[in-house]
UniProtKB/TrEMBL annotation, chains A, B:
Annotated Zn(2+) binding sites: C83, C86, C123, C126
Protein name per UniProt: Transcriptional repressor
Annotated Fe cation binding sites: H77, E98, H115
Note on how the cofactor is bound: Binds 1 zinc ion per subunit. Binds 1 Mn(2+) or Fe(2+) ion per subunit.
Protein localization: Cytoplasm
Summary of subunit composition and partner proteins: Homodimer.
Any one GO CC term of the record: cytosol
The organism of origin for this protein: Cellulomonas aerilata
Family per similarity comment: Belongs to the Fur family.
MF-aspect GO terms: DNA-binding transcription factor activity; transcription cis-regulatory region binding; zinc ion binding
Any Pfam family matching the protein: FUR
Length: 133, 133
DNA sequence: ACGAGTTTGACAATCATTCTCACCAGGGCA
DNA sequence: TGCCCTGGTGAGAATGATTGTCAAACTCGT
């Protein structure tokens, strides 16, 4: 049962297409309201969750526990390098990391091993904005 | 200025020593109250945060966004393999992962690259508890 | 033991997220 | 095209972890 295509769902999807950064549900809700799309906060959450379940978007958690969402180019498993300052995100894949995780897990007798690998740093643009250290 | 040694601080520290699993602030608070140590929830949070700042304990976030704490044997940087079912945690180090993260970051022009690497799976004990697949 | 400065703890406040439930709209069908 | 059923929506309440507040209690150097 594919979800119905509603104005709200389309708006959320489009908002995600528009940016290459991770955005929180709150941020998306705000910018949607700002751009005239009447939409409820609960709907934004619901839609994001459905998109995430369907693998349409990637979810990760910021340091302060907020969930952020991003429409990713590749649907296969991959990781991110996110700028702490501006939020710009780069998709990366970890050749070897996957295998490493599986190997470690097996060595400890664990099955169904999943892994979370995220990198964060300060991107070149933000660094030069404040001047070199 | 080393923090003062109070009954509450000692109780929290001891509670952490007692277990090898990650525990939430709420759980710790509850078990401290249960074992007769009168302590406020706010104090548990404060103490855990201070311990975490001082590198005394490791913090990570569960899938539902709750912070969990654990007293770790090694103080150097390391990662964890946590059982999804029973919460048992194994400390692991990632030879190569650190370097890999730094290399990826540099290649994208990022500085001060930090990385988060956590593994989760089902440990052997839990697996046999329900029988093999 | 004394006093200054921390720490505590009950409770309120915050904040993201989820729940509720009456109302509304998408879309298959006649 | 119009109807109706069903899933989707949204305003606001509820939840639950975490943090802020501030007077009272406690630690520790003297």
């Amino acid at each position: 049962m594919a979800p119905r295509m509603t104005r709200q769902r389309a708006a959320v999807a489009q908002a995600l297409e528009g940016s290459s950064d991770f955005r929180s549900a709150q941020q998306l809700h705000e910018s949607l309201r700002a751009s005239g799309d009447g939409i409820g906060l609960a709907t934004v959450y619901r839609t994001l969750q459905q998109l995430a379940d369907g693998g349409e978007v990637d979810v990760l958690r910021t340091a302060d526990g907020e969930s952020v969402y991003r429409r990713c180019a590749r649907r296969e498993h991959h990781h991110h390098l996110v700028c702490r300052s501006c939020g710009r995100a780069v998709e990366i894949d970890g050749p070897g990391v996957e295998e490493w995780a599986a190997r470690i897990g097996a060595a400890q007798g664990f099955a169904d091993v999943e892994h979370t690998v995220e990198l964060s740093g300060t991107c070149a643009r933000c660094r030069e904005a404040v001047g070199p250290a």
